[in-house]
Amino acid sequence: MKQRTWLSLLLACVLLLVASACGASGQNGGSAPGKQETAGEGEQPAKLRDVQLMLDWSANTNHTGLYAAKELGYYEEEGLNVQIVQPGSGGTDAMVASGNVPFGISYQEGVTLARTQGLPLVSIAAIIQHNTSGFAAPKDRGIQKASDFEGKSYGGWGSPIEEAVMKSIMEIDGADVNKVNIVNIGDADYFTAVKRDIDFAWIYYAWTGIEAQLRGEPLDMIYVKDYSEQLDYYTPVIVTNEKLIADDPELVKAFMRATSKGYQYAIDHPEDAAALLSKAVPDLDAELVLESQKWLSPRYQDDSPRWGEQKAEVWSGYADWMFERKLLEKELDAERAFTNEFLPDK
Question: What is the CB neighbour count within 10 angstroms for residue 172?
Answer without folding.
Answer: 12
